[in-house]
Write a structure and sequence with these properties.
By secondary structure, this protein is an alpha+beta fold. It is 56% helix and 16% strand. The strands form 3 sheets. Strands 2-1-5-4-3 form a 5-stranded antiparallel beta sheet, with helices on both faces. A 5-stranded mixed beta sheet has the order 7-9-10-12-11. Strand 3 and strand 4 form a beta hairpin. The longest helix is centred in the middle third of the chain and has 40 residues.
């Protein structure tokens, strides 16, 4: 045997090792769309390269007739695997092929193997001529069925799959475009390598270039699997996404003609025959407000109200111009039905007004009446000591409820009304507030580290928020020597206010409710006060955090710093 055959055959067989490794690695993605098609293709490459290496090492007719059928089947495996991989990748889902489907796919390969096994009787696959030249190169005289086999592989499966990839490439972008380009590059390399015998190459004529092209293709696709997440980051089809969104979408060209629309738009405009090709004036005929908004042909967002068949419907309208370079090519109109949301908002507004009336009038008046009656009883000398004690408790509870209602009214004002942020002297607010609280709670030691002046930009209710934060620390200072530390730190563009107490700490359920914006018991009015503080800080563009330690609670408020208020 010539040394050239040994070297070329050995190198060809050596390509099977990395292919086998890639085949094993691809099994890690066995349940993702396209993975089993890749495994079939790699298995075809592996079989093809193994047969090519054997035939180069042993260029004899007996070897040819023994392994050429495997060569044919390897070509089938490669083509079928490519088709399955592309179909699953472009459709973004694993195909349910089933027994019948696989039978159809492998019908031609199986028939080819049967005809090859019986080729001596009919010569439909290979003509009864010498298939090898004197140098050991293949010179196969193919029979008629071979061309059916080749047409099935290259004409139907390979070209069909490649057409799907090209179509997907046009519609893709970003990482999905890179994935598609790698798929396309791989199949081009494999196709060129498999027909390399048609080109004069600087290698001996018995060397098959196919195995080396297949190895390069497999390397490209395997790299795509692990570097570009070919099968774990499968793109969602844009067309399918558009079709399934519940919002109505209409695309209108510069001539005012509808060129695209999804199913939601067809249902909205009651166009059973479709809306494509319809002038926008005709489509929006019953939606005059929408038509008026469209006439501007500019980027636009608003809410519109339409009446169809006596039913009032509200829509959030978004219009977005579409351009290609400097040229406008159309407008996308999106309509989101917000009727239910508007109804809920109106119901909430009614409920808010009702609760406001109760808090402002009914509850306040009733509390004042109850408090007055309790005070009369508490001061009645004819009443027993126990009765007067109950009356004083009623007065205290009435005061607590009154404070809670006041805080609730402030919360309503904060979250229900838009206010511009204003400039506040945080140092002055803290000085005045701590002085008033010290007078009300003389047993609490309040230590301050506050500049005389430091200005912040915040919601108009900042003073109430600060007072509630300090009150919460004082009221819950249930120790023998209660202490509250108030510290203000200038942090450049931000100002941090820290309030630390040595009390038992805010109950975890209240803090959790505050973080999650859920309901909680408003013990001693502290819950309402914390809610008010939280809302004011949020509306101020700041941040409120709490830390409960073994020594007490530390509340931190960060607010935007501002220049001093002009004279």
């Amino acid at each position: 045997m010539a040394s050239g055959h040994v070297v070329a055959g050995g190198i060809t067989l050596a390509t099977c090792l990395p292919l086998a490794a890639m085949l094993w690695l691809s099994s890690r993605h066995s349940h993702t769309p396209g993975a089993r098609g890749l495994r079939l293709t790699l298995a075809g490459f592996l079989c093809w390269n193994a047969v090519s290496g054997v035939m180069i090492l042993r260029p004899a007719e007996s070897v040819f007739w023994s392994v050429w059928g495997i060569h044919l089947f390897a070509a089938n495996l490669t083509a079928i695997g490519w088709a399955v991989m592309v179909l699953e990748y472009t459709r973004r889902q694993r195909l349910e092929i089933g027994y019948r489907g696989w039978t159809v796919l492998f019908a031609v390969p199986i028939l080819t193997q049967v005809l090859y096994a019986t080729n001596a009787w009919h010569s439909l696959v290979v003509q009864p001529t010498t298939p090898l030249t004197e140098s050991g190169a293949l010179a196969v005289d193919h029979g008629r069925w071979f061309y059916v086999h080749a047409t099935y592989n290259y004409g139907i499966l390979t070209l069909g799959g490649t057409a799907l990839v090209v179509r997907d490439l046009v519609r893709s972008s970003g990482i999905h475009r890179r994935q598609t380009l790698i798929l396309l590059a791989g199949v081009v390399v494999a196709a060129l390598a498999s027909v390399g015998f048609l080109v004069e190459l600087p290698v001996p004529d018995y060397v098959d270039p196919g195995p080396f092209g297949f190895l390069l293709t497999a390397s490209l696709w395997t790299a795509a699997v692990f570097r570009h997440r070919l099968f774990t980051l499968v793109p969602v089809a844009r067309r399918r996404a558009v079709e399934t969104i519940p919002d109505a979408m209409v695309v209108v060209d510069t001539n005012g003609i509808v060129v695209d629309a999804n199913e939601a738009a067809t249902d909205l405009f009651d166009a059973s025959d479709g809306v494509l090709g319809t002038p926008v004036e005709e489509l929006f005929d019953e939606y005059q407000m929408l038509l008026e908004c469209f006439e501007g042909r500019r980027e636009y967002e608003t809410e519109i109200t339409v009446v169809t068949d006596g039913e009032v419907r509200h829509f959030a309208l978004t219009m977005t111009p579409v351009s290609r370079g400097p040229t406008d090519i159309g407008t996308i109109v999106m309509l989101r039905d917000v009727t239910s949301l508007k109804t809920r908002q109106e119901e909430f507004a009614v409920l808010q007004r009702l609760l406001s009336r109760v808090l402002r009038h009914n509850l306040r008046n009733s509390l004042q009446y109850i408090r007055g009656c309790a005070e009369e009883i508490a001061e009645d000398d004819d009443a027993s000591d126990r009765t007067r004690e109950f009356a004083r408790n009623i007065v205290e509870q009435a005061d607590d409820l009154e404070q809670t209602s006041q805080k609730a009214r402030r919360i309503e004002d904060v979250i229900g009304t838009d206010h511009d942020r204003t400039i506040h002297d945080l140092g002055g607010i803290l000085t005045a507030t701590t002085a008033g609280l010290t007078a009300s709670y003389p047993n609490v030691e309040m230590r301050r580290s506050v500049p005389d002046e430091i200005w912040v930009e915040a919601h108009p209710e900042l003073r109430s928020a600060v007072r509630n934060l300090l009150e919460n620390a004082i009221v819950h200072a249930e120790t023998e020597d209660p202490q509250v530390d108030v510290i203000v730190t200038d942090a450049g563009e931000r100002v941090e206010l820290t309030v630390a107490d040595n009390g038992p700490g805010i109950p975890p359920d209240e803090l959790e409710a505050l973080r999650n914006r859920s309901e909680t018991a408003l013990e001693h009015g502290s819950g309402a006060g914390l809610w008010l503080t939280d809302w004011v800080v949020e509306k101020s563009g700041g941040e409120l955090t709490f830390e409960v330690t073994e020594t007490g609670t530390v509340a931190s408020v960060v607010l935007p710093k501002a220049d001093a208020m002009p004279d």
